[in-house]
Amino acid sequence: MDFLRPASWEEALAAKAEHPTAVPIAGGTDVMVEINFDHRRPEYLLDLNRIGELSDWEVGEETVRLGASVPYSQIMDHLRTELPGLALASHTVASPQIRNRGGVGGNLGTASPAGDAHPALLAADCEVEVESVRGSRRIPIDAFYTGVKRNALAPDELIRAVHIDKADGPQQYSKVGTRNAMVIAVCAFGLAVHPESRTVRTGIGSAAPTPIRATTAEEFLNAALDEGGFWDNGKIITPSVAKQFADLCSAACNPIDDVRGTASYRRHAVGIMARRTLTWAWESYRNDHRMGGAA
Amino acid sequence: MRVNFTVNGRKQEADDVWEGESLLYVLRERMGLPGSKNACEQGECGSCTVRLDGVPVCSCLVAAGQVEGREVVTVEGLADYANNRSCAGSSCGTTLQEAQGWSAEGTDSQTGEGTELAPIQQAFIDAGAVQCGFCTPGLLVAADEMLERNPNPSDADIREALSGNLCRCTGYEKIMDAVRLAAARQSEPEGV
Predict the structure, then answer these.
(1) Which end of chain B is more exposed for a tag (fewer CB within 10 A), N or C?
(2) Is the ipTM of this complex over 0.90?
(3) Neighbours of A239 (CB within 10 A)
(4) Could you report how far apart the first and last alpha carbons of chain A are, in Å?
(5) Pairing, β B71-73 against β A126-132
(6) For residue range B148-159, what is the model confidence (pLDDT) as tens digits?
């Protein structure tokens, strides 16, 4: 095994081009487990810790440019306003020790359907900035996950940052596990209300081969909110609409039975989380709406 | 490969480090510092918790090569680290020899007496928060860091800060008592 220690982003890209099989390591919270357990013996480890810019973020007009290695603890502490869904998701990641090391780049690189950040990223909408010596490109999150633990990265590419839309409305995140800390999600659900585009977006984790959106459920809900004038009248969402939304979210799942839960439980739980997160987020929207109307 | 880094305030060098080796392995097997415990090797139990540039991390998940040029504090250096913090930095760290010889056992039969302890260590002894002792080093490092950041923690804050450290003996209540005790002592005015 060789340990590559690039001191700059350019050096890292050159190393990845020269050794496309090199495994990038930042927080190490996935990679080191595999090495410790002898599940993986990569020929090259590519350490990204010396590249300071990967741990920086920039809050822009429309988006936050989040460096691939910004630890979850920093997202919780500093980006709760701009990225409320991702901050909630970050808080459910493992433990303080793990949140101090792990970041969104690792979740995306591993592309496990159980990665905690994915539902929040899907719901908020974002683009993944990846680069190789051949050039830089941005992959829309909807096109990023290509299979179980597979993503749209080319072998010579590295994840540099994620450009996440700043919240323009309430966001929620919910995760099912056997306890609060240190659990891999049985399933997870993210929801973001986007008043500017008058849409609601979703993200589902651990209930399909890849993280997914419940697009049919979104289309149904967006049409129902529009037809009922909900965005303007700020009314409570009709229970039948919430139920239909929840059922469609369940139907979007394609889960498996495994040690953490059965497929039918996951489908059921996703429906419950969909209804709850929608209710919580819509309640916040109504409150903001009323305050806005009164002012 | 060779790794140069600071351990408990002193510059150290580890040689013949395997590229896939963890920081935990380097500390235990190459530096002779077995205070950080090796249990799950997957970041679940927190018994290997150390400070890396001040931040609590699971040393089993840090690749040895990643600590090049960085600062690590282990439980063996915790007393000095805490002391250094309270008297605003005149200490020169803990040598490997001192750290290797460090023990909570005192020169007499009383546990802890005659040995320099961090306030959190003393509180663990006084509250009876140590049973088999395997989780203790990780809990001490994590709890000490929380008290540094948050001198007056609520019970929820303590539970959250220690949520990455598993104890299979005590049921956590004595550990909670110990952290509350350390927090209370810390907030007492000097010299009282």
Answers:
(1) C
(2) yes
(3) 10
(4) 64
(5) unpaired
(6) 999 999 999 999
Residue of B nearest to A31 (CA): B61
Nearest CA-CA distance, residue A276 and chain B, Å? 24
Could you tell me the two tokens for B30?
């190459």
B57-94 exposure pattern, b = at least 16 Cβ within 10 A, e = fewer: bbbbbbbbbbbbeebbbbbbbbbbbbbbeeeeeeeebb
For the domain B3-73, what is the CATH superfamily, name and number? Beta-grasp domain (3.10.20.30)
Residue B152 CB coordination number (10 Å): 10
Cross-chain CB nearest to B20 (options A27, A45, A94): A45
On average, the pLDDT of chain A sits at: 96
What angle separates helix A215-227 from helix A239-252, to the nearest 10 degrees?
A: 160
Q: Chain A to chain B, count of Cβ pairs less than 8 Å apart?
A: 88
Q: What angle do CA A74, A76, A77 make, to 5 degrees?
A: 65
The pLDDT tens digits of the residues spanning B79-98 come to: 999 998 887 655 567 888 88
Residue A286 has pLDDT above 80, yes or no: yes
Residue A191 has pLDDT above 60, yes or no: yes
> What is each CA distance from A259 to A123, A251, A256, A268, B77, in whole angstroms?
27, 22, 10, 17, 41
Considering the entire predicted model, what is its pTM? 0.94
**C-alpha dihedral over A185, A70, A50, B93, to 10 degrees?**
-90
- Going by C-alpha positions, the residue among A194, A209, A187 that lies closest to residue A272 is A187
Domain ranges of chain B: 3-73, 84-187
- Put residue B135 in one of left, alpha, beta given phi > 0 → left and psi -120 to 50 → alpha: alpha
Residues A175 and A188: beta-carbon distance below 8 Å: yes
State how far residue A150 is from chain B, nearest Cα, in angstroms.
Answer: 22
Residues, chain B = 192
Window 144-173 of B: residues touching A by CB (8 A cutoff) are 160-161, 163-166
- Please tell me the distance from the alpha carbon of residue A159 to that of residue A24, in angstroms, as a whole number: 10
C-beta of residue A137 within 8 angstroms of C-beta of residue A251: no
- The domains located in chain A, with CATH, are 1-48 (3.30.43.10), 171-294 (3.30.390.50)
Q: Which of A158, A151, A142 is nearest to A12 (CA)?
A: A158
The secondary structure of A113-162 as a DSSP string is TT-THHHHHHHH-EEEEEEETTEEEEEEGGGTEEETTEES--TT-EEEEE
Q: Assign B58 to helix, strand or coil.
A: strand
